[in-house]
Amino acid sequence: MPTSGSIKNENGVSKIETQKKENKVSHENKDIITLTVKAQTIDELHLLQKKKSAPTTPKVSQPTLFSSSEDELSKQQLQSISASLASLTRESGPKVVKGDPDKRFEAQRVSHVSHHRITPTIAVSDSALKFTHVLYNLSPAELYEQAIKYEKGTFMTSRGALATLSGAKTGRSPRDKRVVKDHVTENELWWGKGSPNIEMDEHSFMVNRERAVDYLNSLDKVFVNDQFLNWDPENRIKVRIVSTRAYHSLFMHNMCIRPSDEELKNFGTPDFTIYNAGQFPCNRYTHYMTSSTSIDLNLGRKEMVILGTQYAGEMKKGLFSVMHYLMPKRQILSLHSGCNMGKAGDVALFFGLSGTGKTTLSTDHNRYLIGDDEHCWSDKGVSNIEGGCYAKCIDLSREKEPDIWNAIKFGTVLENVVFDEHIREVDYADKSVTENTRAAYPIEYIPNAKLPCVGPHPKNVILLACDAFGVLPPVSKLSLAQTMYHFISGYTALVAGTEQGIKEPQATFSACFGAAFIMLHPTQYAAMLAEKMQKQGATGWLVNTGWSGGSYGCGSRIKLAYTRKIIDAIHSGSLLNTEYKKTEIFGLEIPTEVEGVPSEILDPVNTWSDKKVYKETLLKLAKLFKNNFETFTNYKIGKDNKLTEDILAAGPIF
Ligand SMILES: Nc1ncnc2c1ncn2[C@@H]1O[C@H](COP(=O)(O)OP(=O)(O)O)[C@@H](O)[C@H]1O
Ligand SMILES: C=C(OP(=O)(O)O)C(=O)O
Ligand SMILES: [Ca+2]
Ligand SMILES: [Mn+2]
């Protein structure tokens, strides 16, 4: 820093140093000259602020500025983006130009073309004439400025995170997801009862695609992110996300793997593209549409269209669905799980539905975080699909979850939280907007993240269930058949509508702990998991992160500190060789002691004051399991008939 170092005066206070225009100041005499800035106008002064940056950040918006051979790549990038945004029915493609439309005026002023202020006028919208400005892979700082300036309800919090609103939708809309059924997917995918894949035809997809593309091109500017999925370099997928909000661009910047400048230069054509026109509704006259929200997946075209929802999780989980299709084709198992690794290289997977503790328990100060939500298990080991984490932050506390707390800083997207209007301190207990408040941050914001996010084969497979009935033990050791039974069942029971007073817990069964995202029949994933666990000698565990001492309303949620102790004992191996007893009905092996956990809570019957009600509740849950599993009784799992029989026998017996 040759000219900007500060000079201390007698009081030790820094003097601000500036520079005279004509007179290049030498280092020897810089403290004796009263300096003035090297600019004639404020605009020139502003120009001085910015150093020319890496080639991947957008250039000033005149396309004619492209000159050198380096810019040949930029031109190709623009052509590629232009192709992405092109209408498939009109001849003339969109005129795509890089950069912020507002910056045009800045550039003009400085180049002395015109000194008077040019006010941007409302463009006459004519798709054949107007430009669509592309804000390509902006940095978090640039996205903050865009978001705060243009997106109502977007603010900087006291700790530097970007707080924003996701609009009317504060969660995913699984009923509005559609998958194109064509001659290929008709046979490959899981359709019908229980499947998340609700069909649509190719034509309706194209209608929605065109609607999204037209909407995007009607805007002054769109955001484009080119990023990667999967830390396994051999199975990396290139994704392009076209969106309308800086919030969406920053969210995906955090959640997908961020390319280096070099990787971005050679990005080429994406393997998959998302058109996020979530601010614009779908047309209910379009065939297959049952609401004004539609999330449409076309595997043949390698495209996804989002209309009518701004919830950013749709993009994250939409891409996860794509991975659930692409990876099994390569003999790689895609997993809805968190993953971490001990100092000795012991890897654990944490499966579970939303809110059961994948993110909380995989973020462990004593272990390396590989990822909190989406992974692949190949012949080489595990790899994270994503480049970031998406933590629930309702009731978040610094004491209980320090690593997540500290990750909520500059760069982090905070969705739907409530904060003090002046100090901008977040109140994590406030559910005024939604209970599903979220923080999305790059994985390196967790201090002990394992970079690159890959690891060896898992040693422990932990199935998390938040049992609001309070009858499942805090921890059980599972046989392989039991692991498969519970993996296919995918049970959790959250409490519905906490605001409306005490309600019955709602049992949810979601195959593979992620039925909303799988694309093939659940038994196909289960077979791969069984094979991998068998081959690697991994142990399965069932951990109840839910209620103890009674159902929701009577009992209380198991203390996070106790669950962490249980997880510690699994990781250390100490729980493998301790004393066990078998529970009635579910036939689960439960330890009699776990270090740091009161022994009486390990068998839930001890914690219920009314044993009769306990037994009734246990039976009720067992019946729910049995009913749910009925749809799977006709399926064979893997090549082994014996395993299929064992799995069927591994459920509750009553
Ligand atoms: N015993 C417990 N184990 C795990 N999480 C708990 C426990 N008690 C309370 N929680 C809370 O439950 C939530 C779990 O959510 P999260 O880890 O984000 O789930 P997921 O990643 O599986 O969607 C967190 O808010 C966490 O603080
Ligand atoms: C992002 C999600 O994941 P989870 O709640 O499992 O963290 C979701 O289900 O929308
Ligand atoms: Ca999570
Ligand atoms: Mn998840």
UniProtKB/TrEMBL annotation:
GO terms for molecular function: ATP binding; phosphoenolpyruvate carboxykinase (ATP) activity. One of its GO terms (biological process) is gluconeogenesis. Keywords: ATP-binding, Cytoplasm, Decarboxylase, Gluconeogenesis, Lyase, Nucleotide-binding. Pathway: Carbohydrate biosynthesis; gluconeogenesis. InterPro entries: PEP_carboxykinase_ATP, PEP_carboxykinase_C, PEP_carboxykinase_N, PEPCK_ATP_CS. PROSITE patterns: PEPCK_ATP. It comes from the Eukaryota. Gene3D superfamilies: 3.90.228.20, Phosphoenolpyruvate Carboxykinase, domain 1, Phosphoenolpyruvate Carboxykinase, domain 2. It catalyses: oxaloacetate + ATP = phosphoenolpyruvate + ADP + CO2. SUPFAM superfamilies: PEP carboxykinase N-terminal domain, PEP carboxykinase-like. Residues 1-12, 54-68 have a biased composition (Polar residues). Residues 17-29 have a biased composition (Basic and acidic residues). Pfam families: PEPCK_ATP. It is an enzyme of class 4 (lyase). It is found in: Cytoplasm. HAMAP family: PEPCK_ATP. Belongs to the phosphoenolpyruvate carboxykinase (ATP) family. This is phosphoenolpyruvate carboxykinase (ATP). It comes from Lupinus albus (White lupine).
